[in-house]
């Protein structure tokens, strides 16, 4: 598998994100190796809060949440998906599959970092990947937070705006990631922040990951990932693992999933689920502080229930 690696100087002077990256290599599924990056902060002995980003962002998306979570005593682990951020970037769209992304994160989180008693926070593809991991490795997870995400099986039609996004990001001559992120926000995004979202992608040759991901979402019942996602739904629906549904009030892409999670998931019952106000699809960018505070409260309540 041919890969590209974003030069480190692209990540200098990032606003509000001065965490030193860590790296490890995992198998690429074709006999080679991939370097995967993550940042972490907080007490090393604390249970980990795993922050998984989606398409087409990277761990920078969580910069306003990390200090709030660590101040509350939590250890934060925030990886870059393969193809994004500081992680290696396979150069062909066909190098990417849903199953590979699940396995790549599994290898990092469990084989390399050996995370246990994890609180998953998944938004966008961070939920699509993270929820699969939570269903397939339930012994590793203590809590789940779903935030503007889903676990599609292809049995329910995707909203029209998602199809428009898929067409735009797959067909655009070049991908301006910062512009795409800003268009998914309710609040203004500065030029400096847009540039930080662009940083992992010096030119379009680095963008196979962002171009591939929309095509990996199951949109038909016979999609290659549909059966695994259906199985994951069944496991999660029956699981007692506490689940916080923390969606924004302005996401036309995944907003319809919030009531389904609240209704269908056993772990979501008898929990006070917040609605993050004045926030779009990228609620971490619009309202990261509010989302982090809701997670801190959820984890405090979960600790009380566990005593």
Question: CATH superfamily, please?
Answer: Alpha/Beta hydrolase fold, catalytic domain
Spatial sequence of strands, sheet with the most strands: 2-3-5-4-7-8-9
In DSSP terms, counting alpha (H) and pi (I) runs of 4 or more, how many helices? 10
Distance between the termini: 48 Å
Estimate percent helicity. 25-40%
* Domains (count): 1
Average pLDDT, all residues: 96
The rounded Rg comes to 18 Å
- Give me the secondary-structure category: alpha/beta
Beta content comes to 15-25%
CATH class: Alpha Beta
Strand runs, count = 11
Helix-strand sequence: EEEEHEEHEHEHHHHHEEHEH
CATH topology: Rossmann fold
Shape: globular
Main sheet properties: 7 strands, mixed
Low-confidence segments, given as residue ranges, are none
Assigned CATH architecture: 3-Layer(aba) Sandwich
Describe the structure in brief.
It holds the Pfam family Abhydrolase_1. The chain has helices at residues 66-71, 98-112, 125-136, 160-171, 177-183, 191-198, 208-216, 226-238, 257-264, 283-306; strands spanning 3-4, 22-27, 33-41, 48-52, 75-79, 89-90, 118-122, 141-146, 243-245, 247-248, 275-276. With 307 residues, it is of the alpha/beta class.
């Amino acid at each position: 598998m041919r890969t590209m690696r974003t030069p480190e100087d692209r990540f200098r002077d990032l606003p509000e994100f001065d965490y030193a990256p860590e790296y490890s290599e995992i198998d690429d599924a074709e006999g080679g190796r991939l370097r995967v990056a993550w940042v972490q902060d907080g007490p090393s002995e604390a249970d980990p809060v795993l922050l998984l980003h989606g398409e087409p962002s990277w761990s920078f998306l969580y910069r306003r949440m990390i200090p709030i979570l660590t101040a509350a005593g939590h250890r934060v682990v925030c990886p870059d998906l393969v193809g994004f951020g500081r992680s290696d970037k396979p150069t062909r769209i066909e190098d990417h599959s849903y199953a590979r992304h699940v396995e790549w994160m599994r290898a990092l989180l469990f084989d390399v970092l050996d995370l246990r008693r994890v609180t998953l926070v998944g938004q966008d593809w961070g939920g699509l990947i993270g929820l699969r991991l939570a269903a397939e490795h339930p012994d590793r997870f203590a809590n789940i937070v779903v935030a503007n995400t889903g676990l599609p099986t292809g049995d329910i039609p995707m909203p029209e705006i998602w199809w428009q996004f898929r067409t735009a990001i797959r067909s655009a001559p070049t991908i301006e990631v910062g512009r795409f992120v800003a268009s998914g926000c309710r609040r203004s995004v500065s030029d400096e922040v847009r540039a930080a979202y662009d940083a992992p992608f010096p030119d379009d040759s680095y963008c196979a990951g962002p171009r591939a991901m929309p095509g990996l979402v199951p949109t038909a019942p016979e999609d290659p990932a549909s059966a695994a996602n259906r199985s994951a739904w069944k496991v999660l629906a029956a699981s007692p693992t506490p689940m916080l549904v923390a969606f924004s009030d302005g996401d036309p892409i995944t907003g319809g999933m919030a009531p389904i999670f609240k209704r269908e998931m056993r772990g979501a019952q008898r929990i006070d689920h917040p609605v993050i106000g004045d926030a779009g699809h990228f609620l971490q960018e619009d309202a990261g502080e509010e989302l982090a505070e809701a997670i801190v409260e959820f984890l405090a309540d979960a600790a009380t229930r566990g005593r």
